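Review box. Two proteins, two foldings.
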Amino acid sequence: MLSRQRLFWRLHPYDLPGSDRIFLRACRDNCAYHIRRCPGYAAICERLGFSPGQLQTPEDLAKIPVIPTLFFKRKTLFSMPRRRMAMEVTSSGTSGKYSRIGFDWGSILAEAPMVVNLGFRHHLVSARPAHCVILGYKPHKSNHTGVTRTMFGLSHFSPPLGRTYALQMVDGGYVPDLDAVAAALKRLERAHFPTRVIGFPSYLWFGLKRMEELGLQVKLPRGSRVILAGGWKQHSAQEVDKGTLYALADRVLGIPEENINELFGAVEHPVFYNTCRRHHFHIPAYGRVIIRDPDTLEPLPMGRVGLVNLISPLMCATPTLSVMTDDLGYLTPGRDCGCGIQSPYLTILGRVGMSGIQTCAAGAAELLGKGEAF
């Protein structure tokens, strides 16, 4: 689909008005593709009376059938045979179930320029080599999670001199070793090249608190950065606000707040959301966000809190055109940020109780019948 490639090769990553026309075209093409090739998705569209031709204005994006991420954890929807996919990726499965999302080669070719473009826009790309400390899973043949793929990919924004992982595979399971990470950071204080700390915010918090308890403080070389990906998930009870976490990173690692980036996304919506210098997630041209009323699923105006609905025509192997997360959030006009980016920004407040999402997922399942894969 040329419309998808045209969208994801755009050089102005936050020009939403300028990208509306090609975004709508790419969504129409993507929806038509899935209707032709995925009987389950076609059944949902038919039952809801939706057709791609209804997408004529940005407001019409709200009409696209929304599939909850929880639904992908219960059933498999594919729009092409597995043998034609580039790879199959899973969600983290912290709830005991995980989504299985197929990536086609076209989505990878479209995703790459998006990541590079936004990487340059947020000053993540550097020709200077760096040591990487990854507060996440070391890749393993048995690990197909999207977050592992993401963290490994983030280590390539600068030429990696080496990677130290906080979670190592031992006897068929991952074991954390934050003390080894602390020792590596202490050693890298004397390195000639900067360090990039990449990983879960929860592991950064636990690791830095551990270093503080041990009386370990380092001053990493100039140009060192922190890149956070993923949420707190099973550690949500210990979650702290960004200001507290960033202050701890400055105090223990010597990395100032302006050198800390945070990413947002989902395996069902692999669009690159990166915080601006004021730490807000502005909506890039490659996706759109609708906030929906948890009870009625009707779109809510700017500033109102509701369920986060993510839209992007990136994927052809799996019908993830419009997905509903279990996150609560709200949108704010870009001009209110002050960073210079004019697209609205998304604030995530946390996860909603699962009853409403389960009801929505059950409704989608009812449309599909009893089948397990389509």
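Next protein.
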Amino acid sequence: MRVMISGGAGFIGSHLVDLCLLQGCEVVVVDNLSTGRLENIDTYIWNRKITFVNVDLSDKLMVEKKLVRELEGRIDVIFHLAALADIVPSIERPYDYHRSNVEATINLLEVARHYRVSKFVYAASSSCYGLPEVTPTTETARIDPQYPYALTKYLGEEYVLHFGKVYKLPVISLRFFNVFGPRSRTSGQYGAVFGIFLKQKLEGKAFTVVGDGKQTRDFTFVTDVANVCLQAAKSQVVQEVFNIGSGGSYSINYLTSLLGGEVTYIPKRPGEPDCTFADISKVTRVLGWHPQVKFEEGVKEVLREIESWRKAPLWDEHSIQEATKSWFSCLS
């Protein structure tokens, strides 16, 4: 196959690049490097099976020029993983998130129509469920986005399914739950818990745990996510939505015990669920996919790569309070 991976220099995308090359695919990596990093894929810089295209997918004219007019040959599968993430900046810059997560998705769907791809795999988000009423949460649960990031990712999914319906594009949407692992983003934004905790551990600082730490998350290892993306692409299944989780849900207190270190507790935040836990019975039944990496094994793997978080920002309870003012003012 010749596959296109948007966000291929990013966290999940670079692991999917690894897997696709291992499977003998030709890979076109599309990334504007706003959060992705070339070092995530620099191992393959001389590999003739990989092509890198620096383009902002929200720019329709550049997409047409670089991905349709200049890109030679066929594209069999498109994996759309590129997106702006994080809660606070989405509250502060909703239009940027609409452009990156909605308009960019439409532009890439048009590329998919041009190439008549055999599958368009969309990376959706479990944040669409908001504060789930029932856990484990099924794909039929009520949709209730709590902030612009969640809304724009869900709108992207709706466009993907709509193009599947109207234009008969073979599409699949995968709703990821709390993905973690090596190469997770280390930008200046206040974001995912692993990036915060690992930098704090490197600096010998206390882990800043939100609330009482008893809230649980469905931490899903990144290589399991890459595997299900490829499995979805190879399947005959179309026009479906699947939850992608680990099969378990683990407390933040348990995570800090595995990482090892002191803890300081900071105020609970509005709009955050007490539990995220995917019901993955549909994806295991329909695609035959099962997560392979246990949570504890994944944490050990991350700790082996802890030096890669050396350049990440160091957060403490005071800087977090300042960074999340918009969160409290808008979601309370």
